[in-house]
Design a protein that fits this description.
The chain is of the alpha/beta class. Among the domains are: about 150 residues, Rossmann fold; about 100 residues, no CATH class. Helix content is about 40%, strand content about 5%. It has 13 helices and five strands. Helix 7 links the parallel strand 4 and strand 5. It is elongated, with a radius of gyration of 57 Å. The N and C termini lie far apart (about 165 Å). About 15% of the residues are buried.
């Protein structure tokens, strides 16, 4: 029986033109509406020893074709996925999500190995078994959790939990003296492969912590953890404190440099604006000056016009040449009041007609 590949496991994608919920269509082979019988949606998933199973009814495994067509609500496909789930991360959650979505009606059972088995067969864990149980319980895709799960799956364990399929990534998992602990499951046609999430794993997270150990040790010392709790020696503790102070000084210097750069930049921007405004004003001033005092400026025209008016006002008008000349009659003699003498005449009149007017002025008055 050919089982679905990892590409088909993630085929449930949203489609904009889909008619069903979340863009699903009839071609997906998924009922448009299905009530999810999941404990993990509103509360933590229960442990297997807390769930009652009616063993009076015979349990018959469903085939892959029956599971894909969709089983009745009271008979979900029971899928089992196991692991250590140390430092529970998105890679774990994605694997469980794929296991939950293998079939239209899936009941996901997750087995978590104990500390004893894990330390014997794989290595030391960061989280203890109770913390790992609790992390898996609060994953929304999980319906039931098996504590102290076996390292290798036996027919008795599969029958006890009435498991139809086992979900795990298809990479051979060598452990406990076996090249692949899921070899018997694959031969029995009960294996459903999932796909690993690249770039995230428990080993990768631990590697980051080990690589940046000094950074995390300094951070936790700053947050109040003691050197004894962090297993840090006295010398390293003092070294970390000194590094912390040096980093603070560096940060302050860097902040000052950034602020000074910002200040200089603002000054440069303002100076550029001032220079541009000064250039614009100077051009305007020079233009106005040339317009007023330039060679063809308004002042020159004003001076020419004023000079012309001044010359016109100073110089008398010439009489026309064709006008007739009239001989002026001699002015009558005028006598000063209270005097018997005649006032002197003007030189012009005297030159014109000296004999016309006589003055009665004595020699004593002339002196």
């Amino acid at each position: 029986m050919e089982l679905p590949t990892s590409s088909r496991l993630n085929s449930r994608k949203r489609r904009k033109d889909g008619s069903g919920p979340n863009g699903a269509t009839e071609l997906d082979g998924i009922p448009p509406k299905m009530s999810r019988r999941s404990f993990g949606l509103r509360e933590p998933a229960p442990f297997s020893d807390e769930v009652e199973i009616d063993y009076s009814k015979p349990y018959i495994r469903v085939t892959y074709e029956e599971a894909m067509r969709g089983t009745p609500l009271d008979r979900p496909v029971r899928v089992y996925a196991d692991g250590i789930f140390d430092l529970f991360h998105s890679g774990h959650a994605r694997a469980l999500m794929q296991a939950k979505n293998l079939f239209p009606n899936t009941y996901l059972i997750v087995g978590v190995c104990s500390d004893e088995l894990t330390h014997n067969f794989k290595g030391f864990t960061v989280m203890n078994e109770n913390e790992r149980y609790d992390a898996v319980q609060h994953c929304r895709y999980v319906d039931e959790v098996v504590r102290n799960a076996p390292w290798t799956l036996t027919p008795e364990f599969l029958a006890e939990h009435r498991i139809d399929f086992v979900a795990h990534d298809d990479i051979p998992y060598s452990s406990a003296g076996s090249d692949d602990v899921y070899k018997d499951i694959k031969e029995a046609g009960m294996f459903a492969p999932t796909q690993r999430t690249e770039g995230i794993s428990t080993s990768d997270i631990i590697t980051r912590i080990v690589r940046d150990y000094d950074v995390y040790a300094r951070r936790n010392l700053q947050r109040g953890y003691t050197a004894k709790e962090l297993n840090v020696s006295f010398i390293n503790e003092k070294k970390y404190h000194l590094q912390e102070r040096v980093d603070k000084v560096k940060k302050r210097v860097k902040d000052v440099e950034e602020k000074s750069k910002e200040f200089v930049q603002k000054v440069e921007e303002k100076s550029i604006d001032l220079i541009q405004k000064w250039e614009e004003k100077s051009r305007e001033f020079i233009g106005n000056f040339l317009e007023m005092f330039g060679p063809e400026g308004a002042l020159k025209h004003m001076l020419k016009e004023g000079k012309g008016r001044m010359l016109q006002a100073i110089s008398p008008k010439q009489s026309p040449s064709s006008s007739p000349t009239h001989d002026r009659s001699p002015s009558p003699s005028f006598r000063w009041p209270f005097s018997t003498k005649t006032p002197p005449s003007s030189p012009a009149n005297r030159s014109r007609n000296e004999s016309a007017v006589t003055y009665d002025i004595s020699e004593d008055e002339e002196d």
